[in-house]
Design a protein that fits this description.
This protein is of the alpha+beta class. It has two helices and five strands. The chain has one domain.
Length: 78
């Protein structure tokens, strides 16, 4: 399971990245969690550094990478 980091955002609660699998995991404020596949590490880094996490997701992740809905992760990734 991916270790998640809390984020300050009106859209997201947490985000994490698995370098081995190039997988981005995000938890939205509505509690839904998604895994995005084949995401380069610089995209995750950009998300974490973005002033607007939601804007970054919409411009660089949503509609760009394949994804699936997953059971809600907790913030420690356990």
């Amino acid at each position: 399971m991916v270790m998640l980091n809390p984020v300050e955002s009106t859209m997201l609660t947490a985000a994490g990245y698995d370098e081995k699998e190039s997988k981005l995991v995000v938890v939205f404020n509505n509690g839904k969690a998604y895994e995005y596949y084949d995401v380069p590490p610089e995209v995750y880094q950009g998300l974490m550094e973005a002033e607007s996490k939601g804007g970054y997701m919409q411009a660089n992740v949503i509609g760009v990478y394949d994804y699936s809905t997953v059971n809600t992760y907790n913030l420690t990734g356990e």
